[in-house]
Amino acid sequence: TGEPTPEIVPSSLVDAPLKVPCRLLMGPGPGNAHPRVLAAQTLPLLGHMHPPFFAIMDEIQDGLRYLFQTASKHVLLISGTGHAGMEAAIANMLEPGETIVVGNNGIWGQRVCDLAARYGGNVVSLDKEAGGTLSLKEIQDSLDQHKPAILFLCQGESSTGAHQSLAGVADACDAQGTLLIVDTVCSLGAVPFYGDAWGVDCMYSGSQKVISAPPGAAPFMLSDLGLKKLLNRKTKVASYNFDLNLIGDYWGWFGKRSYHHTGMVSTWYGMREALALISAEGLPSLWERHRRLHLVLLKGLAALGLEPFVKSDSDRLVSVNTIKVPEGVDWAAVVKNAMDKYNVEIAGGLGPTAGRVWRVGLLGYNAKLENVELVITAFRDGLKQQNFLK
Ligand code: PMP
After folding, report:
1. What are the tens digits of pLDDT across the range 288-325?
2. Is omega for the bond preceding 214 within 30 degrees of 0, making it cis?
3. Looking at residue 48, which CATH number applies to its domain?
4. How far is CA 75 from CA 50, 60, 86, 144, 227, in A?
5. Residue of 206, 220, 321, 332 with fewest CB within 10 Å of its CB?
6. Pick from 235, 255, 280: which residue ends a domain?
7. What is the DSSP secondary-structure string of 335-364?
8. Span 59-80, average pLDDT
9. Per-residue model confidence as pLDDT tens digits over 178-233
10. What is the Å distance from ligand 1's center to 112 Cα?
11. Which of 78, 102, 186 for a ligand 1 pocket mutation test, highest count of atoms within 8 Å of Cβ?
């Protein structure tokens, strides 16, 4: 009699606190979160429909408008990582049968092609070699030819380290009635982004890069035109989880608040603090800090005989730096040595750059001179062990 004994018992959990090594994350993300952000996440939970929590959501929206440089009412956090922002953008802005031109110069363009096809889009991949960016002329020509409903561009291609310029793109889009979607997951906060002035209709980002919060919240915006597109869709948004009619209604876009999903209470406390830190530092200072340290990094690595992967200075992304692996050097051994000896993460390539580059992140809280110096020291040591340096 009595309750049966569970037959399945935990094999690895014991009654001891979780232990995690403390590492300096200088790869393409996540970077280390700011301590104030982490501290905020330990505060007591509120209900996701409690007025004090709505007040925090309002503050987050205020911080997002500053970070996006937009006066749009239609900003929020998508619950999920950068991919959730990407899927929300495609699911809501693209209708089945519509054409989308996708700037494709790395893994993110490839993924958007995949996603857009899943949502029934007619996908035109506008290809560029890894490390390159699209010229305004190439973009214009493609828009003229295909007259797409949507143009997708990735501002910071973290698989290649390329920085796509957005200047003039909105005018080219306007000429064809095309809406502009931009991925800023690894660029937002590190380089200028002017949501309104650049005519961006839909933008998504990620929490774990320059914003210096843990992964799990995707900053998101729609312009007035983007919202109009959403409200005038002929078809229902195919994803329930990412339907902005519903999520927007939770974030107060339509003058009330309705439950769609349980807001990520602790995660959003952290985002509130991360956005407060960005507002306190100011965007010009944040942009300049990243640019300056990017130059320090490249100079230090050049002194070791290493070269950037992206050929043109103006195409180089300052937040995720790609460095060519020299002939005969074992890139993975350098990565391993950096972790084992210096507790610092340097990453290898991804997608088209796998095995060809190292990637070094300068992400918000981690973008500090002492961290850049440690990365250079770790490279010097790793390259000596490979006999690339004496
Ligand atoms: N876009 C870009 C440019 C990225 O760098 C990343 C993450 N590396 C993503 C999208 C996807 O974000 P996540 O891994 O947070 O889903």
Report:
1. 999 999 999 999 999 999 999 999 999 999 999 999 99
2. no
3. 3.40.640.10
4. 20, 9, 15, 30, 11
5. 332
6. 280
7. HHHHHHHH-EE-EE--GGGTTTEEEEE--G
8. 98
9. 999 999 999 999 999 999 999 999 999 999 999 999 999 999 999 999 999 999 99
10. 11
11. 186
Separation of 102 CA from ligand 1 center, angstroms?
Answer: 16
Tokens 């007619």 correspond to: 122
| pLDDT tens-digit series, residues 84-116 | 999 999 999 999 999 999 999 999 999 999 999
Q: Is residue 230 part of a domain?
A: yes
DSSP state of 189: T
Average pLDDT estimate for 318-344: 98
The reported pLDDT for the residue numbered 100 is 98
Is residue 107 a contact partner of residue 351, using CB atoms and an 8 Å limit? yes
- Annotate 282-321 with DSSP letters as a single string: -HHHHHHHHHHHHHHHHHHHHTTT--BSSSSGGGB-SSEE
Q: What residues make up the domain containing 316? A: 24-30+282-385
CATH, residue 352: 3.90.1150.10
Please report the pLDDT score of residue 1 as a whole number: 65
Ligand 1 site residues (CB inside 6 A) read 28-29, 81-83, 86, 108, 154, 156, 158, 183, 185-186, 206, 215
Distance (Å) of CA 308 to CA 128, 161, 162, 196, 245: 18, 9, 11, 32, 43
Question: Can you tell me which atom of ligand 1 is nearest the CA of 207?
Answer: 15
| Global confidence as pTM | 0.97
Query: Nearest CA to 181 among 165, 170, 192?
Result: 170
- Partner residues linked to 360 by β-bridges: 321
Measured distance CA(213)–CA(205) in Å, rounded: 12
The residues facing 308 across adjacent strands are: 323
* Rounded Cα–Cα distance for residues 343 and 378 (Å): 10
Does 290 fall in a domain?
yes
> Would you say residue 16 lies in a domain?
no
Protein residue whose Cα sits closest to atom 14 of ligand 1: 82
